[in-house]
C-alpha cells in the first residue's frame, strides 16, 4: 500500500504538528481500507460477493478499495460487516499536538477564569446594590 509520504510536491510543511497529524490520519485511513481489501482477498471473496452482502453494487466496493477514494464510514462498516469483522476505534494524543492543545486549553481556561471573575464581580455589585436599595427603602 502506498501512503501519503511525499508532501514536498504540494508544499505541505511536515514540521507543522497539524499537517503531520492530517498526513498520519490519511495514512491510517488508507491502511484500514487496504487491510480490509487484503482480508477480502484472503477470504477468497470477490468484490461482487462482498457488494451483494453489503446490499450494494460491485462498483461501490471497487470505489471503496481505490487508493485515494474517500469512502463514507457507513460504507466501510458495511464492507467490514460483509467480511464478518468489526472495526474498533482508538484515539491517540499526538506528541507536539498535546503541547499545543494543552497551551490552547490553558489560554481558554485563563479566559474562562477571567470571564468568571467579571461575572462574579458583576453579581457581587448587583447584590450590593440590591442590599443598599433594600436598606434605603427599609429606613423610610
TrEMBL record:
Residue ranges of domain HTH cro/C1-type in the record: 36-90
Matching PROSITE patterns: HTH_CROC1
SUPFAM superfamilies: lambda repressor-like DNA-binding domains (SSF47413)
InterPro entries tied to this protein: Cro/C1-type_HTH (IPR001387), Lambda_DNA-bd_dom_sf (IPR010982)
One Pfam family named in its UniProt record: HTH_31
TM region positions: none
Superkingdom to which the source organism belongs: Bacteria
GO molecular function, one term: DNA binding
Official protein name in the record: Helix-turn-helix domain-containing protein
Amino acid at each position: 500500500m502506498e501512503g501519503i509520504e511525499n508532501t514536498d510536491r504540494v508544499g505541505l510543511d511536515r514540521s507543522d504538528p497539524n499537517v503531520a497529524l492530517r498526513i498520519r490520519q490519511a495514512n491510517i485511513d488508507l491502511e484500514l481500507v487496504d487491510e480490509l481489501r487484503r482480508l477480502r482477498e484472503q477470504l477468497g471473496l470477490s468484490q461482487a460477493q462482498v457488494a451483494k452482502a453489503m446490499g450494494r453494487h460491485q462498483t461501490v466496493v471497487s470505489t471503496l478499495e481505490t487508493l485515494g477514494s474517500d469512502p463514507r464510514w457507513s460504507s466501510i462498516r458495511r464492507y467490514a460487516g460483509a467480511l464478518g469483522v468489526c472495526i474498533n476505534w482508538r484515539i491517540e494524543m499526538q506528541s507536539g499536538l498535546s503541547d499545543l492543545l494543552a497551551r490552547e486549553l490553558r489560554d481558554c481556561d485563563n479566559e474562562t477564569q477571567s470571564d468568571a471573575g467579571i461575572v462574579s464581580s458583576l453579581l457581587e455589585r448587583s447584590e450590593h446594590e440590591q442590599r443598599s436599595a433594600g436598606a434605603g427603602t427599609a429606613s423610610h
